[in-house]
Structures are given as structure tokens and as C-alpha cells.
Amino acid sequence: MSKITTELLLERAVPRSTRLRKIETLNLSKLQLKTGDLDPRLFSRLRHLQKLDLSDNLLDKFPNSLTLPDLRVLNCNNNQLEDVTALKQFPLLEELTYENNVYLTLNDDYKVMFLLENLRLLNGKDITKLANHVRHVNSRKLTSKVTAHWEKFFRDQLPEKYTAEQVKSIRKKFLKSVQTNVVYGPSSLSEFTRWRVKMIAEEFLSYSLGLELNSDTETEEKADENEEESMESPREAAEDVAQVVALSLCIYDPLVTVTPSKRKRNHSKSGAGNKRTKSQANTEEEAEVNPRNAEPLHFLQCHSKGNSREDFKTQLWSCVFEPVLDSGARKDPIVSSSRTVATCGGESVCLIDCETGTVLKKYKVATEEFFSIAWTTLTMVISDSRKKAHNILAAAGRRGIVKLIHVAADFCYGEIKAHKKPIATVCFSPTQETHLFTASYDKRIALWDIGIPDCDYNFKASQLLVLEAASIPLRIALVPTCPEQYLLAGCEGGCFAWNIKLDKGEKSRPFEAIFQFPDDESMTTSHRVDGLAFLNDDVVVSKSSKPGCIYLWSWSRSFDAKGKGCQRTVSAVILAELEWSTTDMSYLTLSTCPAKGYVFCGDEKGSVWMYNLSSYTTAWGSPKGKRSERRISPAQILQWPELRMNGEQPPEILVNNVVSDPALTYLVVLTSVNITAIWKKS
Asked: GO cellular component annotations, sorted alphabetically (predicted)?
């Protein structure tokens, strides 16, 4: 049992306190504490702690996620610390002492000076000037040497067209070579120099050359050791708004150009892949392009790494409108969301007011790349045992960890280590507010009960179910008529369905059905499904990476054909096909607006294809409803405006995702160049 309890923390507070969140000074010295005694969940409740004394204990390192966002003074004298890099999680730290830790050296002093930008006193000495030299002059010299080493010895080794294996090989050789051969400063600082050189070299490969390996297991394993979280308040987020507004107002003015990194997807082949059929050419002529009733409102650059104005490489992946807390309004989908939208991409999650373009809040984890977000509303117990509904945002991505954020309180109150591989997408059950589905690159979809936090944010999460997939799940959707019984998933290898009813005995389940779709003259199950959503209670919209392929099909008529028994291959009952781009680029996902009968999908040119299907749904609802013989053309195509960067339009703008609010007032477009575009129906 841990030596640290809530009662102990309250007792050791200076002065003593009755609530953890009120503690500003805490003395935990001389308690024989070991690293395992520092429970991150307990410490996360010390939100306003500014001074912490951990001297005269037995600590050999710091846990990664103590979540002390306001910590300014830390005393770690007389411990057994072996590493200081985990101190990066305390970015506001101003005073630090760790004397008489025999394993720490001068190299560790330089590491903390680099990692902690606000540090003024180290072991009682003013290090302001030296720290500035370490962060700026030293870094500039090393960056110059690293770049020169690449140019001299490695640039010509990289072919113009390279494979993932070639990238992995040259990356490994370069990192080894540069750490061995780049020398700077006295030999007593050689460990620090190698540490910084590796860091600079990795940044150089990732951001300057686009050579970032997603499968680099060493980087993923070390992510836990370097996590930094922060939640920006409206005032702090104002710094981001400054650059957001600048971008909004400079649609035709020059901005600094940074060439976007190439994203790993299936690019269209030259020749047939890039040709447009006569039908598709006519479609774009017939569709209403940039109609007057939808106008671009804001162009926001709020997910930049390090708040850099020059970041046009961060990919934006997911956006969801915040639900309205009025339970009575929930019955009407038209008023079931606000004008506030959550977006994610790179290291951050943002909350944006669509009308004003203001970044209301921003949550960052320095080692994360967020892929998906989802809202739920929990009824939580507040003071005096009263209950109140609060919106909770779940965010997940490359690290396989789900972050749970109480948005109104500006507080990430917990995390769930859901998978050992990246999480592609998450969604909450519409009927069970605490049930969260996570779909991962480990080829599993897990169902979690995230619990309801108490007034001190204690909560207990549990895994209820694991769905085994034959390939990586990319998109998931619960069947509207039976969300507690069936789940659909679009995967790298097809479209699958599972029975998720919890009264069934087995906790781990294989898929119950795989759907096959038309492929030239035959039917096939083997295709990547990177877009999946329900248009109404029965009509499914799914997108394949096969060029120009978006199908609408009937869930009930398809699944009922399976009959009872074991898993089977069933043919999707196709209702219609939508006219879309001929690109075979993957992961340009689609969305629906059921209340208005609309489908949206972006393309590889920055355009948004909008389909008004409200006139078709009645006929499709008939048991004998026939398939539409012709492809359905878009009602409108919103083309990317002439947004210029440094006098030129970006060479490639991919629309990764596009989502509307239920009333179809705002349309939020997420791109591959770190720009969120907001359109408004006038």
C-alpha cells in the first residue's frame, strides 16, 4: 500500500488544508518515499501546488504524469535520483534543488537548464545567463553542426524516391554517426552534447526533411518518459488567437512558406488514376460551386507545434461539436449542439467558437499526436452532494492513451492506457454515457466504462469488451436502432460488424459479419474502408480508397440476409453511389448530417463535396426500395479559396475531415496543412 494518502497530503500541507485542490505548499520530506509511492492520480488533484519538498527520501526517478501544472519550487535534495528529464513535466518551475544525489552530474544540470525555460535558481545558484546560453547559443551551434553533417555525408545517400525501409536504414545510420562525430564544448559535457545532438537530429529529420517513421518503437517507448501536458486558459489561448486572426485576415496576403511534409498514403498513379471521366467532369459543372448561401468565415492555424506561425505541416484529423447541456433540448437533434467545436491534430486539442473564430481553450501533450476526439455528458456530484451535468471530452492518438478532459474546469482529470499501439478513432455510446469505444492499430476495438469522477476527480475505468478485427479499424459507428447490440467498423481490410451486447458471456469476440461490395464485375470484401457513418437509422454511407467510391447501403436489409448462426460474408444491399473525386488517396473521411439528410466529403484539392440526399431517403426506406441507377451528383462543391502563403498557394491541400453542426449552420474543414476552415450558411 502506498505511503501517501489523501489524509497525509492534507496533514503535510503548509498550512494544513481540508481540500487537496487548495494546497499551495507541501512538505513530504523524510518519509522514506520511493518512486512508486508518488501516485500520479493522487498528485493530479494538487492543481494549485506551487512548492513541493521531497528531500531526504529514496526517490530514483520521477513518475511521468504527476500533473502539477502550477509547480514553481521543487526540493529533491538527498535522494537517489538517476535522471532528470522527467522534470520537463513542470514547465513553470523556477527554483530546483537536487544536491546530494550521487548519480547526477554536470550533464544533468545542463539538461534541466535546457528543458525548463523558466528556471532561475539551480541548487541555490542563479543560472539565468548560463541557461540562456545553453538554450540558444549552444543549440544554434549544435544545429549548424548536425545540418552540416547531413549535407556532407548523408544527403546524397537518400534517393529521390525512397521506401520506408530505406528511410529507416538511413535514419538509424545518421543518428549513430551524428552522435559519434559531432563534438562541441568540454569533454565533461559529452553526455549532454550527445543527448542534444540526437534530439536535434531527430527534429531535423522529422520536420525539415519529413523523414519520420511512425513505426519507430524506440520513440514510442520513450514517449512516456517525456510527456508534458498543459491546458491553456482563454487568456493563454489568446496568444494563439493572434496568429489565428492574422491568418483569417490575410487570405490574399503573403505568409511565410513552409513546405508541407509528405503524408504516407496511396497517391494517385499517373495516367488513369488522374483522369476524370466525362461523367465526373459534368458533375463538377452541374454542381453549384461556392454557392452564395455558404461563405468562408475563418481560417485558423491553432494547432501549430510550439505555436509557430510557420507550421503548415501538422495534420488535423478530427472535429466534433460540443453537445448542449440542456437535457430537454437533446431530444431535438437540430439544437443538440452548440457553436463550439473541438478539433484535434498534432500535439493539441482546441475548442473553437465557430462564429467568432476564437480559440476558447487549448490542451497540449508534447509527445502526443491526437487522432480522434469524442464528447459525452456526465452527471457529476459537486459540492453539498448536488448533481450537475458536465461535458467531458475524450482525446486519443499515437500513444494509445485516452485523455479525459473536464472542459469547463480546464482540467485533464485522468487517462486510460487503452492500447499499446496508436488509437485511430474513439466514440461514446449514445445510450450509455460512460461507455467509450476505442479502435486501435493493434487490430482491436475495446469498450470501456470510464466511470463518473467524484468531486475530487477520483474515477475508476474498466474494460468491458474486446472486439477482434482482422485488420486495423479506421472508423467505427454504432447502429442507431440498436446501439447497445451492434457496431460497424471500416477497416484497412474491409467493413465488419460485431455483436456488442454485454449480456453475452464472452468478453473477447470475433466479428459476426463482413460485408462485400461491388468491384468491377464481381463482389469483394478486400478493400480499405476509410469513411463510415449513418445517414439515418438504416442507411450507411461508406467510402473506399478505391478511386471515387462512396456507397450508400441498407444496414437492415444487408444484415438480415446473413440469418442466424456463425460469422458470414454478406453482400451489402447498395442503394446508391455518390459521384466523387477520382483520387485513391486514403484517409479523406466523410461525415453526415442526419437531421438535414446531407453527406460531406473533402478531396485532395481542398474542396468539400456536399450531397443533399433528403429527397432519396423515403424511397430507400421502402422494403423494396431499388438502387439508384446513376451516381448521385453533389448539390454543391465548396472550393478552397485563394489562401496565399508567402505569395503562393500551398502545393497540396488535402481535406482530412469535414463536419457540420446538426443545424447545418457551420461547416468545419480540417486540412493536411494545419489550417482549420470554417464556413457558414448565410
From this structure: centrosome; chromosome, telomeric region; kinetochore; nuclear origin of replication recognition complex
